[in-house]
Amino acid sequence: ILHPASCILHPASCILHPASCILHPSPVSRLPLPFKILLWFFLNLALLLAGFLLLFNTEYRFDLDWVFSSHAQGRVSAMRDLIVDDLDATAPEEWDEVIERFSNAYHVRLALFDEQGAYLLGAAGALPTEVRQRMHPVRPSARPHNAPPGVTTLRNEASASTMALLQSANPTRYWLLVGARVDNARAGGPMHVFLVADSASPAMGGLVIDPTPWLRLGAAAIILSVLFWLPLLRGITRAIAQVTDAARRIAQGHLDARVVTRRRDELGVLAEAINGMAVRLAGLLQGQKRFLGDVAHELCQPLARLQMTLGIIEQQATDERQIRSARTAMEKAGQIARLVDELLVFSRASLAASATPPQPVDVEAAARAAAAQEIPAADAEVRFDIPPGLRVLADPDTLTRALANLLRNALRYGGGRAGRIGVHAAPDRDGVAIRVTDTGPGVPPDDLPRLFDAFYRVDTARTRETGGVGLGLSIVKTGIEALGGSVEARNQPGGGLEVTLRLPAAPAAKASRPEESTAVGS
User: Nearest Cα to 255, choosing from 24, 7, 506, 5?
Assistant: First the structure.
């Protein structure tokens, strides 16, 4: 959809049916984009599951309970061996201190029970039924002398390998049951005991569940997922970015913008539709400009004859009223002739510029030629700030005409006669920026985006004599963009309008003359 002013046609003729913008798009591939995304997702799940099963079979070997990996068993066995070693080397009267020290070290409550489940010492009290059932009581033997009350000699060697993690309710707590063999001569010789640890967390202070490997596994899964999805997401986002950039450039009037992609899915079809729309719009706009040029050219000869006839009528008229009528008709014919001339310039601005190979153009020479053409010496002061030898790749006539239109616009509406007009140029990024400034009231912010639209005038109350037909800035934009440049306008912070032309830079020429005066006019 093009703005009516930029099409120079009735709005209804500028609204293209979507079907006319799609030039035979390629059919959608056998794998639509949603199916490809879902397929990629399930492949990701399958890959993660395969990795989990591999780790499950190689790293996590379940011998007793499912939560006990080989690492967890090793940590629990190491704790049991440390406690048993201290109990073997310590008098029975000091076993309470040993159990308390290890309870503080592992952040759990530790206690000792005999092989019948009777409490011996430590922080725990009555055991839940689930824990007692896992102790597998055996027939006791005689109590050794000097052993703590309830401790009996070992009668079942298999019970020393007991290791289990249980959960009790009301309140919910987790119990770690570990069988141990204590061989302390001062306690009466070898004996079997149960080491019981309870905690509010199933991790048991890191004994059963160590979060570090799980965090590493989660981080590895996330990184693997990102790497797995990255090619698909990058391809989608790159295609969307290309389509967005092309659509934005087309909206700005660059109808030569194209989306370059090899995708065969919905995004590829969208890219082809965007390209087809751009080709269609470019053809229509080119045809409109040629049509306007042809119409304007055909009107030139009848208008010239009309003006000549009106001039003869004015010379032969004897009545004062007839003379005034003939002069009025001459003025109207002159307005029509000027409109036809501007239409010719507008229609040929892009055609002539695009057909002419760009050549190095001296910016200062073009600016001074435009000022001499549009601003007489007594009308306004023009300040030039252009480095000597600065050149751009352009068409000399198109650049001079664009600068002349900008200077004429600044003189009419920018307070040129009462203020100062400036022409500044400097290298900018990959090209050259030429700025034309004035000290007038500027343009309302809402009108800035439409300032370069054809037939658009900021002040709708302006007459043809005071405001022109609204083609000057549009001619500037059309010609500069045909040269591969860009045009933008903004209000200066201190007041006045600034119009910037950006063109490709040409190789600098050698300076052969001293710097001239920086002012033209008085």
Answer: 7
Of 350, 288, 246, nearest in space to 3 by CA: 288
The residues, ordered by sequence, that sit 6+ positions from 54 with a Cβ below 8 Å of its Cβ are none
Structure tokens at 78: 């190491």
Asked if 165 and 202 count as a contact pair (C-beta separation under 8 A), the reply is yes
Quick one: what percent of the chain has pLDDT higher than 90?
Answer: 10
Contact at 8 Å (CB) between 162 and 178? yes
Output the six-digit token pair for 321. Answer: 């009223």
Write out the two tokens for 373.
């053409």
Instruction: Give yes or no for a contact between 408 and 472, defined as CB atoms under 8 angstroms apart.
Output: yes
Place of tokens 């190491």: 78
> Which pLDDT score is estimated for 34?
64
**pLDDT exceeds cutoff 50 at 348:** yes
pLDDT of residue 4: 36
- Backbone phi, then psi, for 200, in 5-degree steps? -80, -10
- CA–CA separation, 358 and 187 (whole Å): 106
The C-alpha atoms of residue 268 and residue 239 are separated, in whole angstroms, by: 8
Q: How far apart are CA 345 and CA 420, in angstroms?
A: 28
Strand partners, 168: 173
List the beta bridge partners of residue 174.
167, 199
Phi/psi class of residue 318: alpha, beta or left (left: φ > 0; alpha: ψ in -120 to 50)?
A: alpha
In this predicted structure, what is the pLDDT of residue 436?
Answer: 93
**3-class SS letters over 394-448:** ECHHHHHHHHHHHHHHHHHHCCCCCCEEEEEEEEECCEEEEEEECCCCCCCHHHH
How far is the C-alpha of 479 from the C-alpha of 472, rounded, in Å? Answer: 11
User: In Å, how far from its chain's centre is CA 364?
Assistant: 40
Q: How confident is the model at residue 378 (pLDDT cuts 50, 70, 90)?
A: low
Distance in angstroms (rounded) separating the CA atoms of residues 402 and 394 = 11
CA distances from 254 to 56, 251, 466 (A): 59, 7, 31
